[in-house]
Amino acid sequence: MILDVFRQRYGSDEGVRVFRAPGRVNLIGEHTDYNLGFVLPIALDLACFVAAADSPDGLMHIYSEEKHQSREWPAAEVGSLSPSHDWTDYMVGVAHELIRAGFPIAPQRLLVRSTVPEGSGLSSSAALEVSSALALLGGREIPPLALAKLCQRAEVGFVGTPCGIMDQYVSVFAREHAALRIDCRSLESQSVTLPDDIEILAVNSMVKHALGQSAYKQRTEECAAAVDAIRRMDGNLQSLRDVTVAQLERSMPAMPGIIARRARHVVTENERVSLFVNACQRGDVERMGQLMVESHVSLQHDYEVSAPELDFLVDTAIGIDGVLGARMTGGGFGGCTVNLLLQGASQRFRSTITHAYQERFGITPQIFDCRPSGGAGEVKNFERIPTSVPLSS
Ligand code: GLA
Asked: Would you say the pTM of this structure is higher than 0.85?
């Protein structure tokens, strides 16, 4: 139980409250959020839990169970800390933003337990940010959108990743049993009920190529360059979200090839999100699968954020009976694929993909069932907090 660990660590578990924030898998709409477009993630059972209690010694204590690492500072100094370039930055960054938003930080003892595998593209960072923010708030009210934006600012400003809003937003707003279609400009969202006869599985390639971080920033710059180029030809325009396929086709010949391809991914991906939501509402699972594969191809060739391991997992998956579609999910350059299966196909899928991946790369992939879970909040029933990362297959 998390309380036992807390007691062992800090001597007492009096007054402990636990806050949870889920990781996510994005069904479709990749690299569209920072272009103010559309995304369709679901929150996962995999989540980050932060157990918190007041600290009598004036210090802020943090401890990560997975990393077996701890850190402490005088609480009054947390607001002036600089980044240490490790996991603590997510928490300190959030503390900075809370202070800035008018929520002073009290001395606390915090214990972090996360079942979201790090570097897997399932958004372990947003889960840590959002659960930490709730723990640091300790019950003080904040509007959910302000919470999501504050956590995104912590990641952009303090951690230094120029990410969009998708991960933090879905971690806060997710609803059980449904995907969330988020408009990343208006920041409004709708629940999208998924057909009954499908299963969603994430396959972790277990690799994370170093290129990812710099490439992500580069892609944001390339998208900005595409907006500038299209604006010069076609008038007023704020982001690639505003570009239609026809407008894109007109402007492509005048843009450098690479910029044109980046823009084509974003414009067509936004369209695929709408088509996917429509197919979902009609229960057209074949079409949903096709759109996922189209998304992958576009990410692979136009946006160039895939990796040989991800391409192999997708190619293998779509050859397995009962698999409707597959694609890389998250930022790319490693991490997970998301797979859409007909109900009943998962056992065959798990064994076939595991053997094929082992044979090709010598790596055993982790496989996760993705059932849409609810968004972040306080956990009252401690019995429901998992003790460790769920095992694959
Ligand atoms: C990362 C970022 C998100 C989003 C995805 C790509 O997960 O944190 O904001 O941009 O990549 O869709």
From this structure: yes
